[in-house]
Amino acid sequence: MRRAPGLAPLGAVIAQHHERLDGSGFHSACRGPDLTAASRLLAAANAFQTLTETRAGRKGVTRKQAAHELREEARRGTLCGEAVAAVLEAAGQTGRAKKVTYIAGLTAREIEVLQALAHGSANKEIARELELLPKTVDNHIQSIYSKLGVKTRGGATHFALERGLLQPGKT
């Protein structure tokens, strides 16, 4: 990539195509906060392609089986749930479930609440921002705490930081 100046910016993205949010990928063992949205998307697309293609010593799985495996990886927090959803939509594998779960079994709405909570917003502010009732926000927060196994906003924020759910500079 260095030899083609126009492609040089893509080098970092391409180099991270096997990385995972929890640091279990290779070759540099990057974690969620270190991975760009493009890297997360490429990792999910690469995982789908790898699962479905026949390789030496094994047959590829069906697209449906690959979709199931990617959803499981998103649930476990190894692949980005949003990237997996985008890849599966592009592959025509949206499945029957409209409710997509992301890291640690969180729903898309719970991730929105977690992000707002991690940025320091009070429950009423989160409710106003997401057009929810304050009690609904509290219910989401309790569900988030339960799913993450934490008891405080600090614990939830730490989880969000570790898994790359917070975008730098966004308040």
Shape: globular
Number of helices: 8
CATH superfamily of the largest domain: Hypothetical protein af1432
Stated plainly, the CATH topology of the largest domain is called Hypothetical protein af1432
Total beta strand runs: 0
Q: Class of the largest domain in CATH?
A: Mainly Alpha
Which regions are unreliable across 5 or more consecutive residues at pLDDT < 50? none
* Beta-strand content bin: under 5%
Provide the domain count.
2
> What is the makeup of the main sheet?
none
Structural class assignment = mainly alpha
**What's the mean pLDDT score?**
82
Determine the N-to-C terminus distance.
Answer: 34 Å
Which CATH architecture of the largest domain?
Answer: Orthogonal Bundle
- Order of SSEs, N→C? HHHHHHHH
